[in-house]
Amino acid sequence: MKSEKGLNLKILDITMTIQEKYPELYKYLDEMLVTIPNMKNPKINVNTLSLYYDSLTSLLENYVQQHEPESIK
Fold first, then answer.
1. Which residue among 1, 25, 47, 48 is least crowded, i.e. fewest CB within 10 A of its CB?
2. pLDDT digits over 40-68, tens only?
3. What span, in angstroms and rounded, lies between the C-alpha atoms of 19 and 37?
């Protein structure tokens, strides 16, 4: 089972990768549904962190597949 600390580190790492290598994506991080809770005091736990990490990974992978030249893939 993943820990909150481990997931937070992975989220920080992928967020930094996006910020440094793909800054054009950084503006979309605030708009992701996972980051916009529909309740006043949302619970942050391993499940929500895992969902957020998965969404970041998907965003980055999809962007790279669509925008990187074939020789880099």
1. 1
2. 777 788 988 998 899 999 999 999 999 87
3. 23
**Other beta carbons less than 10 A from residue 19's beta carbon:** 12
Total domains in the chain come to 1
- Would you say how long the chain is, in residues? 73
Inside any domain, residue 63: yes
Biggest CA pair distance of the chain: 46
Distance, CA of 53 to CA of 46 (rounded, Å): 10
Q: Which domain holds residue 31?
A: 4-67
Residue found by looking up tokens 């929500």 in the block: 48
pTM: 0.78
